[in-house]
Amino acid sequence: MKTILITGASSGIGEATAKHFQANGWNVVATMRSPERAGEVAKLDNVHVTRLDVTDPDTITEAVIAGIDRFGRIDVLVNNAGYGAYGALEAFSMDRIRRQFDTNVIGLMEVTKAVLPHMREKRAGTIINISSIGGQITFPLGALYHGTKFAVEGLSEALHYELEPLGIHIRIVEPGMIRTNFGGSSFDFAQDDNLPDYAPMAEAMGRVFGKLASNPSEPETVAEVIWLAANETGDRLRFRAGADAVDLLDRRKAQDDAKFICEIKELMKVLGLVKSQRPQRPCPKSRAAQSVFALSLQNPPSAQPGQLECPHSDRD
Q1: Domain with 42 in it: what CATH number?
Q2: pLDDT (tens digit, 9 = 90+) per residue, 103-160?
Q3: Which of 83, 86, 145, 198 is flagged as catalytic?
Q4: Is 149 a catalytic residue?
Q5: Which domain holds residue 89?
């Protein structure tokens, strides 16, 4: 019987993934910062709930050892734990900036390092890193979150080459808008009243996210894609999760940077976020950019920071 270790398994994508694999006959090491919040997962057969805080190296080591002691092996690691920080860069303290990268990037690497010796010894294993459409497409005010997800994409692709000769596979899962706790404890929004220059952009992006979050995919949708990634026998690296992720990333890939970025700037001007200081040539039509940002022109309800359901992150 195979075993999967999942970080951030107390809710959202992590919880759905734990249930999906358990229902399909796998052993599950469901890790989280607060095991007392495990809920239904803790009651399932062949599920071991244990504490793991990706910013605490000791808990990482202890969780990996506990999983191997309980089930004898770890075949798949899902690096799912994380959260999203949005807001103007100036509005974040350096402590909050470091916390975002420590959780989404450094923590992911620490958990991966802890599992790799076991997988190298077996010459087998799969590591699935949960990225986001935000690892391929950026939104205004997302410098921190997108910075971490672009980092996850890059380090995962590099590890793909590094580990494949050892029998260890890397997979990247890129969810779109998912109905998770991202708008609660998994969302860190910075707004500083002393920085009014960014207020119009924050308000406009609230409208954008309010529209995008109006029809999110369920966490189970991502769990099914993670199942496919864990059982992939070929060389496929990236897996998209959610109809919006497939659509947006396909459209983005169809445009070069100049067309995509130009169209975004045109739409930002329509929103009143920027004022051109000099005449600019019209942009070539970019359906990718329009599909993301033109939504805000339809006057959807404005979303408050605590109500946003943004691209993936799960934080216990």
Answers
A1: 3.40.50.720
A2: 999 999 999 999 999 999 999 999 999 999 999 998 889 999 999 999 999 999 999 9
A3: 145
A4: yes
A5: 3-192+215-245
